[in-house]
Amino acid sequence: MIVLLSVLNKAGWLSMVKRTHEMGKAGLSIPAVLKENKLLTPYRFFQAKRDWPQIIGKQIAKYSYIKDIDKNCVIIGVLNSIWMNQLFMYSQEIQKKLNDYIGEEFIHSVRFVRSGKKPAPVVYETLDGEEESDYPSGRIGDVVLSDDYVQTVRQETSHLPERIREKMAALRFAQEKRRLSMEEEGFRHCPRCGRWLARGETVCLFCRLEDRQHKKKLVHDLLIQMPWLSLDQFAHEIGAGRSDRLYIELYNEVRRDCIYKLIERIHYDSDTPEDDLFLALFITRKTPVELTDDHVRNLANRYRKKE
Ligand SMILES: [Zn+2]
Questions:
Q1: pLDDT tens digits, residue range 242-301?
Q2: How far is the CA of 77 from the centre of ligand 1 (A)?
């Protein structure tokens, strides 16, 4: 932010560059600027998530939602298994409705996953969700606890009221049996937080997400200072290799988040002049000296709600 403002002051960006007249009239329903920058389809998909009940009908939307997109396959989360079959038969229709809404043949297939109210797995989870194969295959009930351990628990629970005592002891025994059987089968702990690791993991999901969140914040802070950075310039600034997939992903994700947030503000007329400038910088990837105030205003007006 500080960098940006100092650039603005130094350059007097209002009068620098000759106007470009290609922006056209305000209020077009298809944002040509997004299209030029290949952001239109992802943006429409983002909107589709929000407008799902409108697209598919309230009744169906009650039990389903757009969970994700994998290349050109849309993943529909279904809350209720009865609806899985129903929706499966309806998948052609869903694909068509989504493509109509998005405005091009963006979705090539539809996949359904049971999702939603499922409780979080207690022991561990992977990025793909819980996996049966990650549970200990032996029967936890068959594990025999050492006399020492049993005695220790008995002692530690002896001060509890009788009603709770037996239950607490049983809970501790079950917990220890699970721990032993997982260790027996080669499960390891996350070196950072101690949670159980899924097979093949070296650091647990939570710690990985924490890392990602931290990096995302760095990327966000940098792009807010210099929204015009191209991917190459960005990689250079942040010291990442050109093939660092996480940083490339975060670069695109942060840009998209920022652009959508700003467009939303403009759409509901709650934007400030700084918001409009930021949007122009993000979308065009021009520096403040290369943009005129007309350019900025015209661009913002494209996203205003039509009266
Ligand atoms: Zn961890």
A1: 678 889 999 999 999 999 999 989 988 899 999 999 999 999 999 999 999 999 999 999
A2: 27
Distance 121 CA to ligand 1 centre (A): 15
Q: What is the pLDDT of residues 149-176, one digit of tens each?
A: 999 999 999 998 888 898 899 889 988 8
Structure tokens at 248: 């490339």
The residue extents of the domains of the chain are 1-30+204-307, 45-118, 137-184
Q: How long is the chain?
A: 307
Exposure string over 122-146, b if 16+ CB within 10 A, otherwise e = eebbbeeebeeebbbeeeeeebeee
Is the Cβ–Cβ distance between 162 and 169 less than 8 Å?
A: no
Reported as type and span, the H/E element at residue 70 is strand 64-70
CB-side exposure of 163: number of CA atoms within 13 Å? Answer: 0
Q: Which two tokens stand for residue 152?
A: 């220790």
Cα 17 to Cα 293: distance, rounded to the nearest angstrom = 10
CA of 175 to the centre of ligand 1 (A): 19
Instruction: Using the mean position of ligand 1's atoms as its centre, give its distance from the Cα of residue 307 in Å.
Output: 51
CATH code for 45-118? 3.30.300.180
Contact 303, 271 (CB under 8 A): no
- DSSP-assigned beta bridge partners for residue 73: 70, 109
Q: Determine the distance separating the centroid of ligand 1 and the alpha carbon of 196, expressed in angstroms.
A: 8
The enclosing H or E element of 111 equals: strand 109-114
